[in-house]
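Annotated sample (chain length 158).
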Amino acid sequence: MKRFRFKLDPVLRQREQAERSAQHKAAAVERQRIEVEAALSAEQRSIEAERDAFATLGRGGAASDSFRCQAVALAAARARAQALAVELAGVLKQAERARQELAQAAAARRAMELLRDRRLDAFRRGIQHAEAIADDDLTTMRHARGGQPGRDRAREAG
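Output written by the structure step:
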């Protein structure tokens, strides 16, 4: 019996590899997003701490040098937070692109799998058709030789 061989199997394997690559890229960008969000969250907590320290200085009547130092620290924390926010926006754009590429790679792989499945079904129908033709030919040959298979056995026995 003939075996099914999908001639585009190398293309299917290449598309599966492209999908895996897109999955890895999307996962890497997602890890980067999580890291940047964590850093931004830590920076926001730092800003809150600096703000609380600044407010405490105002109530205690501290020297102007302390106010300036605290104001500079607060401004630096805000600048770092702003830079992280900009970085996060870039990472979110990368994540969206990575998700789109993954969706396209998955669709390309699925299309190739559907083509393979259709060709496998056609191959199976062809085999069934060939078997049906062979059965019909055998039946026709038996009938042409003198009848039904049961009669042939009765003649040989009798």
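Annotation: The first helix runs from residue 9 to 60.
Annotation: DSSP finds three helices and no strands in the chain.
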